[in-house]
């Protein structure tokens, strides 16, 4: 098989013309020569007779690359690791155990189910020519010496050694003289690389902190082992000063390499994984900001390195596997991201903090707080140079609100509000609406709170829905300030009156097609601020366009657990657009114990989650905009199960995610039937009487069969144990 070029995943926008360079076996740690024309890499491939890691070179200038293109550099004996070109491009550094034993040392077995790396004490660092002749041994010290790299200015070699009693980074001059210890903290410091100006080092480190962690690290090290399951990325000057921890993500963050600007670092991480084995490439600024995902395909992507001119990226991946457990080397053209298209968490925090502040007193439709919020949003739109939706950014509306939810007779109290809407004109044939509602419950004047007797208390609505508004404003910045001219125009719509019955979005939707007949999709973000530990995200409306399910799946962030709800009707503003035959998507992280309570405050927002979701929406909008046709599909009646006709309430806040084992209770309302019967947040309801509950829709179906005063036995699971409680509805 020869090198093949593959079409990049749409979301892997930094990688173009991806080519597979190896074919079968385990191929990793491929690094460029100084002229960028060759690679040195580590290979294990029984089909080629290579049973244990050995070092090979690969000439990238060959017209056809196949398995025969690999040239052996190491001795073929023992085990090798971590090769790197010398400044002349004619010699290669690598570590090997061959001098101590020609046999291949066995890899360590997991201990107590924990994955381990061997720190073979026989490793020494050698320099060989490209024909495989060893010309110099650079280390000769008891214990581990490996992971050697060369500075771009050709003056220094950095490597990892245990010669001080711990795994630290050391440097030496290019000839092996002038040894200096660079790091000193207890833990495994390794996998280092120089910055392009040769002034900095970036490396992975496991720094045990607790007594238990320290003991475990030392005990394993005594057996020449390390457990690489908790590592973060650090930088320091080449003399060890100015040590900084760059990542604080948890799990394994490793294989770092400086971006050509030296202001960013690309690395491999599984911090996102909620289950299983999943490593993706990420990039982060050297100050720890601006984290974003680079790879999306397959479950292992690591060992990234930029070519000397910064135009190529080489990395290892298990994509395009011929057999299970294969890892191959790939090369791609590198395309830098438009900085304007990177979500800025500081912007999200600024927007949410203001909108959810006590100064706005809960943003009740028709209140002074709503007007202040509208002025803030309009000011942001003006700063971005966006056009008004009509003659002005604000679209006023009037309606009647019933202060008694049981009142079905009176016309209600007159009220007014205002949508705030902006337009990005890309001179395109199609338009997409991105929206969220900015109103909330105020001081509970309209009696929508789930907290009893809460009139007069400020309901700040940080999640509901300052989070969604912040997402729309950040997307407005990204789309209006980037260098790309999208294939669609975009309307950024912030609605009021949502809490009183989707009033603002109904008003906009009623005239939308007359004003903008080319609107072909609507994206709604309502409550995206409380992503849970399982990274559960509900996306509604996926059945309203045949292309949506595939787009949602391909663009989802790593580690996310997505529940796709097909229906176009739901408890938020997208419903107003679906009813006008417009395809819709609804992004929602679920209800919680603070839903519609004064406790829905900014301090509880998961900003990493909001950032990931806004990035997700950005990719999703781009993918929709690139479709040849955006086709509307009416969804089945199951969508309407969100709002069935029922006369009773249990008094819980349901988790809208379909977990498959029943309805998960996110919160319980005070002095309502569920609380009075002893049902708690975290319980999983499986039955109401004889009616089976599978998720939120079947739960509402069960409620629709009951009348006030009915008594039923509710079956639920708590901590794995099935329990029952009698409930009077």
UniProtKB/TrEMBL annotation:
InterPro entries: 6-blade_b-propeller_TolB-like, PDZ, PDZ_sf, Peptidase_M28, WD40
The PDZ domain, residue ranges: 648-720
Keywords, ordered alphabetically: Aminopeptidase, Hydrolase, Protease
Pfam families referenced in this protein's UniProt entry, alphabetically: PD40 (PF07676), PDZ_2 (PF13180), Peptidase_M28 (PF04389)
A GO term, aspect molecular function: aminopeptidase activity
Family: Belongs to the TolB family.
Protein name: M28 family aminopeptidase
